[in-house]
Design goal:
Elements lengths: L4 E5 L11 H19 L3 E8 L4 H10 L3 H18 L6 E4 L3 H16 L3 E11 L4 E3 L18 E10 L5 H8 L4 E2 L1 H12 L6 E2 L1 E2 L15 E2 L1 H6 L1 H4 L9 H6 L4 E8 L3 H15 L6 E5 L2 E3 L2 E2 L10 H8 L1 H11 L6 E2 L2 H31 L12 H18 L3 H22 L1 H6 L3 H21 L8 H7 L34
Parallel strand pairs: 1-2, 1-11, 2-3, 7-12, 11-12, 13-15
Antiparallel strand pairs: 4-5, 4-6, 6-8, 9-10, 13-14
The chain binds 5'-O-[(L-methionyl)-sulphamoyl]adenosine (MSP).
Length: 506
């Protein structure tokens, strides 16, 4: 069923230090999907934010001798600044310390408690503070090191309230029979490691520290940071706030709900989150896209390992579009990917400088040189290159509709290569010498329109340069839409510049 609304979320990041390329990765993918869906005519809501409670944050703040709220306030500003530099166009930045979120989370707890889905008990087990996660035996080694982050798990024994996750086994088995979670491999991991064998109730309150949301039922307890954090996806839309108009719109059956997460937090989003939603009587998202990690020389980039790349350095050196492009094209979500300066520069030169950039500058150059910047004919929509462009649009949409951004971008780059090759094979400079002016003019009109298709399909990625790119072709950026890409309706003005937009990196 074609839906009219699109709701996309990123995980909310821990304000425990600076964000790195790994975090920029998820947020950029979400931003690209949001922008694509807007072009497709959807009403879009794009949510990101910060996950501010929990023991890890409390410990970091204590180490600096400041109150947790003061500690996170400063870091959250750096998050917002990064998103601005990266052209991330979110609709709300939720902080779990926002009062509307706090109030709603207390009500969520009460609702589940009153439905007997939460009950008082006690819990004992191994806990990873860095990941704020209870570990099953398979998740830590003989030295108690967590297999994801390498930190030593602590012993945890407390009086607590438990969420009856075990009662939802049938629900989860059914959910996992659908294509809710992608990629497929992650599905089997969740089923085998957590759902079919170890589906235990989850401890959802703490009494040993106080940086969190108090429950109304018992003032010794604060809510487990993951129950608090996962709830953000609905509290941000006003759930239990008194005004649920956004929720009714974006958490309804008319909305395509897509959540992006990294693979190490798949358990929370594919098991606990659907259970909470089901307990509350709310629908499950359409898709949970669990992406791989960005590695730096084959090791997960992470603060604790110390091999992080700072996105701000990359933006300052190469520009935000270059970073957005690398994320979109070079890091397919179904596997781990690498980020190194060499790979980054190589991709920039091959794709943005030699392919797209070169095509733009050589074409504007020829139109200026041979026709003083204006062509008197439109593209032949049945020419080979325009038929290719038509196929590219179709393939691109099919990939984007499956959230496969990297393959979608590759479709566009293929069209760029085809145009470049066609220029080399046709040799427009020979046409001019031979006096075949009509043929030359039509050829350039075809290429010009194919370039508009290329630019438009890259618009969700190349946010800063898009207008410059189409303006260089003489087109009016505001008038280009999916509906008129393959038509005569794009009015081309005189081309006045042959500037090089993506200069080759030395
Ligand atoms: N606060 C939780 C999420 C709560 S969502 C209800 C959290 N925060 S985090 O700051 O540690 O990380 C958030 C996201 O960043 C995760 O999706 C994680 O996978 C992603 N990444 C962190 N390092 C990464 C890489 N090196 N590569 C790709 N993504 C990485 O978890």
């Amino acid at each position: 069923m074609k839906k009219n609304n699109f709701y996309v979320t990123t995980p909310i990041y821990y304000p425990s230090g600076n964000l790195h390329i790994g975090h920029a990765y998820t947020t950029t993918l979400a931003d690209i999907l949001a922008r694509y869906k807007k072009e497709m005519g959807y009403n879009v809501f794009f949510l990101t934010g910060s996950d501010e409670h929990g023991l890890k944050i409390q410990q970091k703040a204590e180490a600096q001798g400041v109150e947790p709220k003061v500690f996170v306030d400063g870091i959250v500003e750096t998050f917002k600044n990064l998103w601005k530099l990266l052209d991330i166009d979110y609709d709300r930045f939720i902080r779990t310390t926002d009062q509307d979120h706090v109030d709603a989370v207390q009500k969520i707890f009460t609702d589940l408690y009153e439905k007997d889905l939460i009950y008082p008990s006690s819990y004992q087990g191994k806990y990873c503070v860095s990941c704020e996660e209870f570990l099953t035996r398979a998740q830590y080694d003989d030295d108690f090191k967590h297999n994801v982050c390498g930190n030593v798990a602590i012993d945890f024994e407390e009086e607590t309230y438990m969420l009856k996750v075990s009662a939802f086994k049938d629900f989860l088995v059914k959910l996992f029979a659908t294509d809710f979670l992608i990629p497929e491999a992650r599905k089997n991991e969740m089923l085998n490691n957590f759902i079919l064998n170890n589906l235990e109730d989850l401890s959802v309150t703490r009494v040993s520290f106080d940086w969190g949301i108090k429950i109304k039922e018992n003032d010794k307890h604060i809510i487990y940071v993951w129950l608090d954090a996962l709830s953000n996806y609905i509290t941000a839309l006003g759930y239990k706030s008194g005004d649920e108009s956004l929720l009714q719109k974006f958490w309804s059956d008319e909305t395509e709900i897509v959540q992006l997460v990294g693979k190490e937090i798949t358990r929370f989003h594919s098991i606990y989150w659907p259970v909470i939603l089901n307990g509350l009587g709310l629908r499950t998202p359409d898709k949970l896209l669990s992406h791989g990690w960005i590695l730096n020389r084959d090791t997960k980039m992470s603060k604790s390992i110390g091999n992080v790349v700072n996105p701000i350095d990359v933006i300052n050196t190469y520009g935000s579009d270059a970073l957005r492009f690398y994320v979109a094209h070079n890091l397919p979500t179904d596997r781990d990917g690498n980020f190194t300066d060499d790979l980054f520069r190589e991709s920039f030169n091959i794709n943005l400088a030699n392919n797209v950039g070169n095509l733009l500058s050589r074409t504007s150059n020829m139109i200026m040189k041979y026709f003083d910047g204006s062509l008197s004919v439109n593209a032949d929509l049945n020419s080979e290159i325009m038929l290719s462009a038509k196929k590219t649009i179709k393939n691109y949409q099919a990939k984007m509709d499956k959230y496969n951004i990297s393959e979608a971008v590759m479709e566009v780059l293929k069209l760029g290569q085809e145009c470049n090759k066609l220029i080399e094979d046709t040799r427009p400079w020979d046409l001019e010498k031979e006096g075949k002016i009509k043929e030359l003019e039509l050829f350039l009109a075809n290429i010009r329109q194919a370039i508009i298709v290329i630019c438009y399909l890259l618009k969700p990625v190349l946010v800063k340069n898009y207008t410059r790119m189409v303006t260089q072709m003489g087109a009016n950026a505001n008038k280009i839409k999916f509906e008129n890409l393959l038509s005569d309706e794009i009015d081309f003005a005189k081309i006045v510049t042959k500037e090089i937009i993506f200069e080759r990196l030395k």
